[in-house]
Amino acid sequence: MTITRGAQPHRFELSADTLAQTTLSSGGQTRRWALAALAAAALLLPTGPAPAQDKYPDRAVKIIVPFAAGGSTDVMARKIADLLSKKWGVAVVVESRPGGGTAIGGTALANAAPDGYTILMGPDTTFAINQLLSSRPQYDPFKDFAPITQILAFPMSIVVDAKLPVTTLKDLVALAKTKPLNYGSFGVASAPHLTIEMFKQAAKVDIVHVPYKGVGPVFLALQSGEIQISAFSPAAAAPYIKAGTMRILAVDGVKRWPSAPDTPTFAEAGFPTVHAPGWWAIGAPAKTPVPIIKKLNHDLREIIEAPDFKEYLVSQGYQPASGTPEELTALMKDTAALWAPVIKKLEIDLK
To answer: How many CB atoms lie under 10 A from the CB of residue 262?
Structure first.
């Protein structure tokens, strides 16, 4: 056996026969020496080929998106996939797994092999809220996900049909107490649903929920007068506000949103307990090896924190955000704690 330390090779040979003879003829002291020699030799044996994660990734990586192809999350994921592919020299593909309020995509990640070759990019709903919506959730992100990094953040805002005679949240509350009003969302426990319900609980007012199948129908319903209220990110609502078909009344945040500087925060509008932040993140299945999680975090943060990508996010109305897996875990816990009381009061239990 050849042992190498630094640049100096040494030859070390110890046969079983020699060890036996020496041990029998020399008593306990030699026996102890022989055992120590064997232990030292074992420590210096080659450790074999490098683990698979040292070569990661050496084949195609899949990014699950829990929405239909063509949406904003899908477009963002494809941009990140392209940048990762160039960095790694392997294919990075995006697979849309829509449905179930993002639970289908979340379940797909939870059931994937924990080898780093399947990851998910999705919203806070997938990472922190879905498990609150059922007494028998399909997955638990705190047990089934390995958080990697946050990508971006944005606030939710409350918007109304521009024909509605209100300009503030207090005007809206006063009107809702005199006539029936409806608000639209793209499904039970979607961001608009939870945001308006939190507002209703704070304002002690009743506004009827009308769920739709997708974001597009909600916009159409607002413009037609079928509903009068909804909640969106300022970026999503911006084209309609510019066109004069919607009015934004207030936005989440401790300070005003850069793309809507004339819009008060919920606190400024008189409702300091209304807090509706939104964010996207990337995660892997639980038990993915730590070295792979570290590499994914490092490489993704290089992309997210690059000036060009930050500029792209800002142009889309988002705030760039990134961080460690531990920071994302803390954000997940804070988000779950924020929405749990709202969901409990609504008595949501999706089967």
So the answer is: 6
| Parts of the chain with a pLDDT under 50 | 1-28, 30-31, 33-35, 37-50
Which amino acid, one-letter code, is at 239? P
**Residue with the two structure tokens 């160039």:** 86
Distance CA 59, CA 116 (A): 10
The CATH number of residue 314's host domain is 3.40.190.150
The DSSP bridge pattern shows strands 92-96 and 61-65 to be: parallel
Burial label for 53, CB within 10 Å (0-12, 13-18, 19+), is middle
Number of domains in the chain: 3
* Contact assessment for residue 199 and residue 274, using Cβ atoms and an 8 Å cutoff: yes
CA–CA dist 276, 190 (Å, integer): 12
166 is in which domain, residue-wise? 157-251
Q: Confirm whether 191 is domain-assigned.
A: yes
What is the pLDDT, as a whole number, of residue 123? Answer: 94
> Tell me, what's the pLDDT at 52?
56
Task: Tell which of 210, 231, 251 closes a domain.
Answer: 251
Give residue 18's pLDDT: 45
